[in-house]
Amino acid sequence: MDNAFINILSDHIQLKKTSVNLSCDWENIRKLSRSHEVTGIIQYQCKDFIPAEYAPVFKKAYATALFYYSNRVRAMKSISEILTAAGITFFPVKGLEVAKFYPCPALRTMGDNDIIVQPGELKNAVRALKEHGFNDAADSGEHVWSCDYRGMHFEVHDKLTDGDTQNSQQESFFENFMPFVKNNELDWNFHFLFLIMHLRKHFMLGGVGIRQFMDIALVAKGNKELDWDLIEKQLKMLKLKRFAHSCYSLIEYWFGIKIPVEYDIIDVSLADEVTAKILNDGVFGHEDESNKDNWVGNILIDSGGSLTKNRIRFFFRRIFPPYDEMTGYPGCRFLVNRRYLLPLAWIRRFVFMIKAGKSSQREHTFAGTFKSTSQIEKRRSLLDRLGLLDK
């Protein structure tokens, strides 16, 4: 575990001055701060003693964070005015709101900015925002519109989750968000539960970085609105309680923040194992290429029965997806209401995957299917010990 890197982040959370440390591995701190997108925070805490050869990198990241924060605040003010004038209920989630609890909100960087609108109002919201200079970006879908505005990326959703949950109970709970919205703000007890669920999603799929745990630590530390008895009750109902308690234990282990509920402390060996994985993964797991296979591993782990049979069954399903799944693939819309063209759609998809190479699903679909039994079992064990397999 890189104690120096985590200790600096802990000092930031605890509002402590970081002691001068010239002997730590600054090259490693530079790499970790970049991959976890906390370079500005390192500059904020250590500006007086960062070695000269690294100082420009940290100063630039700090200035960039301040610049984008200023633009983001102005953009959100514009969005608020536009949607309010259109009579659309909305609220920001995650980074935009969590940043308020950071000692320096501008240093809680984010790749995109998420805004949720009332179900059924996405088209009206898109129309209103387009009229005021927000432009289409890639990756829009039925329940999300991606847009760019003055160098920033925004995503407008009319669903809080979109297949990201573990079970139907979670899906139903998080999609029934409107009773928890008042004056275009999401109730913080509900929001905190969503942060836990969203953290679980990233842990199960691409991976998760230490910044997401910082979010939870700072919200728990600074938000006096939280009703911990209610949160505990809801976590239990949603089958998220054991995972949340693992997160609380890690937060205490790293940052010295004690969440005000009773929870078991995970053993040091597990804490160190998780720490090593999280530091290696980067902010969303992109630093570890093997994380692309996680969704395949999740299916194999969750299927039960013979692992060999599950591998074969999944492999052939990926080669020959069923009709309902194929209609959602790019270039296969011609299949709608034409089931007899399914073989042609399979061929088209396969050719596309070959041409796309590593950038397509081909690599992590098929490589993940044939991961070694020991790798799958190791992942299953880690997920289970953290409470991620509770149902």
CATH class descriptor of the largest domain: Alpha Beta
Total beta-strand segments: 7
List the domain count as a whole number. Answer: 2
Strand content: 5-15%
H/E order of the elements? HHHHEHEHEEEHEEHHHHHHHHHHH
CATH architecture of the largest domain: 2-Layer Sandwich
Unreliable parts? none
Distance between the termini: 31 Å
- How big is the Rg? 22 Å
Instruction: Please estimate the helix content.
Output: 40-55%
Q: Summarize this, please?
A:
This protein is α+β, with helices and mostly antiparallel strands and 391 residues long. The chain contains 18 helices and seven strands. The protein has two domains: 3-281, Beta Polymerase, domain 2 (2-Layer Sandwich); 289-385, no CATH class.
Notable characteristics:
391 residues; alpha+beta; Beta Polymerase, domain 2; 2 domains; five-stranded mixed β-sheet; two-stranded antiparallel sheet; 18 helices; 7 strands; 54% helix
Structure description:
The chain has 391 residues and is an alpha+beta fold. The chain folds into two domains: 3-281, Beta Polymerase, domain 2 (2-Layer Sandwich); 289-385, no CATH class. The chain has 18 helices and seven strands. The chain has a five-stranded mixed β-sheet. A two-stranded antiparallel ribbon has the order 6-7. α2 (26-35) crosses α3 (39-46) and α13 packs across α18 (373-385). The longest helix is centred in the N-terminal third of the chain and has 31 residues, at 55-85. It is globular. The model has no long low-confidence stretch (mean pLDDT 88).
Provide the fold topology.
Elements (H helix, E strand, L loop, with lengths): L2 H11 L12 H10 L3 H8 L8 H31 L4 E3 L2 H4 L14 E5 L4 H9 L4 E2 L7 E6 L2 E6 L10 H8 L5 E2 L2 E2 L1 H17 L5 H13 L5 H10 L3 H15 L12 H14 L12 H10 L3 H13 L3 H4 L15 H15 L5 H8 L3 H13 L6
Parallel strand pairs: 2-5
Antiparallel strand pairs: 1-2, 3-4, 4-5, 6-7
Helix pairs in contact: 1-3, 2-3, 3-4, 8-9, 8-10, 9-11, 13-14, 13-17, 13-18
